[in-house]
From TrEMBL, chain A:
Nuclease in keyword set: no
Taxonomic classification: Eukaryota, Fungi, Dikarya, Basidiomycota, Agaricomycotina
Organism per entry: Crucibulum laeve
Name of protein: Trafficking protein particle complex subunit
Main localization, broad class: endoplasmic reticulum
Transport recorded as keyword: yes
GO cellular component term, pick one: TRAPPIII protein complex
TrEMBL record, chain B:
One cellular-component annotation, GO: TRAPP complex
GO terms classed as biological process: endoplasmic reticulum to Golgi vesicle-mediated transport
InterPro entries registered for this protein in UniProt: Longin-like_dom_sf, TRAPPC
Protein family membership: Belongs to the TRAPP small subunits family. TRAPPC4 subfamily.
Source taxon at top rank: Eukaryota
Assigned keywords, A-Z: Endoplasmic reticulum, ER-Golgi transport, Golgi apparatus, Transport
PANTHER family assigned to the protein according to its UniProt record, in alphabetical order: TRAFFICKING PROTEIN PARTICLE COMPLEX SUBUNIT, TRAFFICKING PROTEIN PARTICLE COMPLEX SUBUNIT 4
Pfam families for the chain: Sybindin
Compartment list: Endoplasmic reticulum; Golgi apparatus, cis-Golgi network; Golgi apparatus
Major localization listed first in the record, in broad terms: endoplasmic reticulum
Protein's UniProt name: Trafficking protein particle complex subunit
Protein source organism: Crucibulum laeve
Summary of subunit composition and partner proteins: Part of the multisubunit transport protein particle (TRAPP) complex.
Length: 244, 136
């Protein structure tokens, strides 16, 4: 199977035929968002004073202690991301899909990073090929790498065999977001759903991942990340089960 | 000791948030609140020019016989106003906490338009937790 053009999700700026994609294409928006020519990141960091912190790309990938970013800075950035996206979509579904796409681009990188951090030190590096351990590692490792804490629960749907859920009682990205009543179905955790979808895709478990608000009395911003696996994944799981 | 009400006034003098917490205030229509907030904005602008000692940030406390108005002016020009009884001592601290809540739940909320009325459940519930619902 060969893609004629890059996977649409890997390139938000690609001029695909999606309804609102033209708003994001560089040709239409370059004038509005052009920035004054700033010195490049590279030159400013290299010519800086000695003893300055090294370029982010030169830092040790395994050192996580100083790699945290300000939650406030992230909250403002994510708020702008949602506002920017909201101006360019026609409805809630479109908005969620776009947030999902943005999350997907992060997920592909998170998978690489967490795999490197978890396996590089190991003498026998391995890759998850079974679904449940993969889901567990998303619940703990991916969540810790992205949000600094693990998710709160994993559930399996009783009605559908192909549905699994990751539950976060207080998603950090939604901590300061109050969704207006007329958009109450919207869950900004679609961004997180995109991250999960990318990680699952990268591990070879293609799935559709969506986010849903499931508040309860103790946790008003409780969110469920719903994973709907493709049939091929279930078929393979069954084969692997039989082999044992 | 009682906290009667909280106003948030934007930098243009418009009332963007108004809530009462205790009995004792006259019942006003929203239009009357808007006029009062605009008036306070004007008074504040005047007081900031009255200082004989150079520039001033304007009135911080206005006291009457039965009430006290405490005003917190932020660097961006937004004003937080607390109406309390005379004996209330925590007004400044409460206003600072309100400012914190505003920075978190209003400014970081993508569905809030700057300078427009605040309609955010997160802010409402934080204010409720901070000051109370009605009986202080």
């Amino acid at each position: 199977m060969a893609y004629a053009q890059p996977h649409p999700r890997l390139s938000v700026l690609s001029s695909s035929s999606q309804s609102s994609a033209e708003h994001l294409s560089p040709s239409t928006s370059s004038t509005r968002f052009s920035l004054p020519s700033a010195p490049s990141v590279h030159s400013t960091l290299v010519t800086g004073k000695p003893g300055q912190r090294p370029n982010i790309y030169d830092r040790n990938l395994n050192r996580t202690r100083v790699a945290e970013v300000s939650a406030s800075a992230f909250a403002f950035l994510f708020s702008e991301v949602v506002q920017y996206t909201q101006k360019r979509v026609s409805g809630i579904n479109d908005l969620e899909r776009r947030l999902n796409t943005l999350g997907y681009r992060i997920g592909t990188r998170v998978l690489e990073l967490t795999a490197w951090r978890a396996e590089s030190a190991s003498k026998t590096p391995k890759r998850e090929i079974r679904f449940l351990p993969a889901l567990m590692s998303i619940h703990t490792q991916v969540w810790k790498a992205v949000f600094g804490k693990s998710a709160d629960a994993i559930e399996k749907s009783v009605e559908n065999a192909d549905e699994y859920m990751i539950i976060d009682n207080d998603p950090p990205i939604e901590r300061y977001i109050s969704v207006p009543r007329d958009m109450s179905q919207l869950s900004c955790s679609s961004f997180t759903a995109g991250i999960v979808e990318a990680v699952l895709d990268g591990l070879g478990f293609p799935a559709r991942v969506t986010a849903h608000n499931t508040p309860n009395s103790q946790h008003p911003s409780r969110t469920t990340i719903l994973i709907k696996l493709e049939k091929s994944v279930l078929d393979r799981e069954e084969l692997l089960n039989q082999k044992q | 000791m009682a906290i009667y009400g909280l106003w948030v006034i934007n930098k243009a003098g418009g009332l963007v948030y108004q809530r009462n917490f205790a009995e004792g205030l006259a019942q006003l229509t929203s239009n009357e609140y808007l006029v009062l907030a605009g008036t306070l904005h004007g008074i504040h602008a005047i007081t900031s020019r009255l200082s004989p000692m150079g520039s001033s940030s304007g009135a911080q406390v206005i006291e009457g016989e039965t009430f006290k108005i405490t005003i917190l002016l932020t660097v961006t020009g937004t004003k937080f106003v607390l109406l309390t009884s005379l004996a209330e001592t925590v007004a400044d601290a409460v206003l600072q906490r309100v400012y914190d809540a505003y920075a978190d739940s209003v400014m970081k909320n993508p569905f809030h338009t700057p300078e427009m009325p605040i309609r955010s459940e997160g802010f409402d519930s934080k204010i409720t937790a901070l000051i109370g619902t009605g009986q202080a």
